[in-house]
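Example 447.
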Amino acid sequence: MAMTGLQIQKLLPGTNCKECGSNTCLAFAMKLAGKKAELSACPYASEEIKRVLGAASEPPVRVVELGPEKKLKLGGETVLYRHEKTFVHQTALGVNLNDTDPAADIDKALAAVRDYSMIRVGETLVVDVVAVTQKSGSAETFAALAKKAYETTQKPLVLRSADPKALAAAAAAVKGSRSVLAAATPETADELVKVAMENGHALAVTAPDLDALAALAGKLRDAGFKDVLLQPQTFSAAEQFQVNSLLRTLALKDNFRAFGAASLRFVEDDDLLASTAAAVNEISKYGGLCILPRFDAAQLATLMTLRLNIYTDPQKPIQVEPKVYPIGEPNANSPVFVTTNFSLTYFIVSGEIENSGTSAWLVVPECEGMSVLTAWAAGKFSGASIAKFVKSVGLEDQVKTREIVIPGYVAQISGELEEGLPGWKVLVGPQEAGDLESFIKARLTPA
Ligand code: SF4
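Predicted structure in complex with iron/sulfur cluster:
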């Protein structure tokens, strides 16, 4: 919880020696409260204030970084509802493999996970993790599959076994991958914390009820081990929903530090609809890392699209880079279209041009990610600004075409655009992108 300047001042030496660059300890305290100064600037800060301020500046849900380059981040959330601010790190999705699965199935699944890639509104979506579950009873078999999964996909793993010795073998086999060991119980936690620390992995903790889970997570936290995930045990979709909500609410509203961690959930039901529903539950309500029972490309596409809708920042429009985009294989005589750099607008317009079979140039000026009418109303998509952009990118040297198609909704800018681009003819296109194909076929000659 954030501290006020006055609360911080009480913990400072009070000598007003100015060595921190502030005239008084109070002035320095106010800067600290506003996060405009670092405590290290005061050479006389006590151990107590270091501890208290350190805890106060921690996010309510701790960030855990996974993968060899720590690219996958979980947690870090500060709000219960996206509209309050934004969610920070989306629910990571993974696919499970059992070490008793047929070798051919494992090879196929690993290749599929490695190669899976889907582009949505300019973002490349991939499978985040691979889970390896020990069912064989053999630590060697389990560790060998972990190694193979990591070598094939280069993704962080979730290693699941009830046997601490097997987890230790697998953890060592993929040392450096910053994976997750699942899961430590009150009985095995001490042993597994050592294994996790020795090999640089995070540790999921589990317990039969929430009291025991809080006690275990709190114990690890107090001991200074911070890369913890919570794996609560639930037995129905309703309970899963309630428990996830409870954990997050306690962490954010009551500052209950033991539950200030991302969650891990294995979806056990192999039925496609049931597993999709369980994963939707996780994505919608605070899931940190969700493991699906098997690889299914269609299911992943569905879940990732839902996830994208929830975890995009509502305050930041998704945008594409302002530039001239070739659609198909345009040449100097190909038609020229213009639209805004709001991702959805760009992808819809470019898709419709592509569907028409015409190669073209799509001019996308900087519009701060706004859609056509919003950008026009905000003065970001005017005839003058489009003309200026066309000149700045050297389009007139690149193409011989001297016709540019503008969206039908902004027909009123055509005069200003013609003034800004002498020698060009402005064609007013359809209002809806869906009508572009028929417009192109009726009005333009394919290149
Ligand atoms: S250096 Fe420390 S003791 Fe000196 S004025 Fe700044 S806060 Fe106070």
